[in-house]
Amino acid sequence: MTIGDAVGTTQPRLAQASIADDIGLLLAKLHAVGSVRNNRALADVQLRERSYSVLRLACSGLEPTQRELAEFLSLDPSQIVALVDELERRGLVVREQGRTDRRQKIVLGTPEGERIHAQALAAVRASERDQLAALDDEEEATLRALLRRALWH
Amino acid sequence: MTIGDAVGTTQPRLAQASIADDIGLLLAKLHAVGSVRNNRALADVQLRERSYSVLRLACSGLEPTQRELAEFLSLDPSQIVALVDELERRGLVVREQGRTDRRQKIVLGTPEGERIHAQALAAVRASERDQLAALDDEEEATLRALLRRALWH
DNA sequence: TATTGTTATACTCTATAACTATA
DNA sequence: TATAGTTATAGAGTATAACAATA
After folding, report:
1. Which string of b and e fits B88-98 if b means at least 16 CB within 10 Å?
2. Which residues from A are below 8 Å from B4, CB to CB?
3. CATH number of residue B101's parent domain
4. Burial bucket for residue B101 (CB in 10 Å: 0-12, 13-18, 19+)
5. CA-based nearest residue to B147, from A54, A116, A28
6. CB contact under 8 A, B147 and A31
7. Residues near A88 by Cβ (< 8 Å), separated by ≥ 6?
8. Structural domain harbouring A66
9. In this structure, is residue A14 part of a structural domain?
10. What is the pTM of this model?
11. Minimal Cα–Cα distance from A118 to chain B, Å?
12. A67 CA to chain B: closest CA distance, Å?
């Protein structure tokens, strides 16, 4: 058995516990379940949640440096190295020297990277719609807005 | 450097990317940042987020079986074994044989467990208030409700 | 035959420190 | 002196399979 098997879980007995009001636990659970869903959805394009998010930003047009990727994704810079290494090895991104600071490396999607990115994005979107099936469009937008505000106040 | 250093992060340049609308990434980031906060808050009582959540349910009065803990916390039953082992070793919980099914083990908080639990709960509450400082009471309640509905529809 | 708890193992993710090259 | 990227390593979290006791 594994987390994935709990993806379709409905109201268990313990959900009545006051613990179910712990924001931290709600986030942990929703994230855990969502990760499994996303990773499954991304398996087709041989990506995982983390490599996907790096590719996503590399293909955003914002020309992120590795440092910015680390900060934005809440990952350590050393982890970004490994993720970019893998994407680069697969020909999905390239490292370019920073325009003004030669220490920086900008991570950019290649045409092949863009192609995989488009597929991955569609898969993740479907996965999210699935996960939030219980919420209508307005509620989903509210959730998104609240999460954003909690992060970047 | 580590995730923790991003705890106080405000509006980075990349937040404008459409990626910042990915519910999955918002959850991953908020959970990552929240985990660091919670684990720091729990360090005083020598707990981590996961052992805390097991102790929390053991002290809930709901008399959960290990199987129920696994399902509710989205963890594998084999992981629950290790977490309960540690809490039991520290004298914070005990395993009792199930009332009707002798295969089951019910996890219950001891008096000492209740004491530590009360401390831990207060620490986590403070940590959450901190993390969601940008939201007012009503917004926080809305967030809580939406997360709950997304999980147990 | 199926389920609960358990043990074991491999893999992914996270934390930390030290190094290099530029600034 | 500080910062961006890199390497290395240890610890925490996750995935999977197999087993004994009980249903």
Report:
1. bebebbbbeee
2. none
3. 1.10.10.10
4. exposed
5. A28
6. no
7. A94, A95
8. 39-123
9. no
10. 0.92
11. 13
12. 11
Return phi, psi of residue B93, to 5°: -140, 165
CA distance A12 to B71: 8
**Which nucleotide is closest to the Cα of B5 by its C1'?**
C15
If one counts the domains in chain B, the total is 1
| Predicted pLDDT of residue B4 | 54
Mean pLDDT of B136-146: 95
**Mean confidence (pLDDT) of chain B:** 91
What would the pLDDT profile of B54-75 be if each residue is shown by its tens digit? Answer: 999 999 999 999 999 999 999 9
Evaluate whether residue A105 is within a structural domain: yes
User: Per the CB < 8 Å rule, is A57 touching B19?
Assistant: yes
Q: Would you say the C-beta of A98 is within 7 Å of strand D?
A: yes
Q: What nucleotide is nearest B75 when CA is compared to C1'?
A: D14
- Residue A136 included in any domain: no
| Cα A133 from Cα A113, distance rounded (Å) | 30
Q: What is the pLDDT of residues A94-151, one digit of tens each?
A: 999 999 999 999 999 999 999 999 999 999 999 999 999 999 999 999 999 999 999 8
Nearest CB among A14, A34, A152 relative to B64 is that of A14
What are the distances in angstroms from CA A124 to CA A43, A52, A109, A137, B12? 11, 9, 18, 17, 24
Domain assignment present for residue A109? The answer is: yes
Q: What pLDDT score was predicted for residue A4?
A: 53
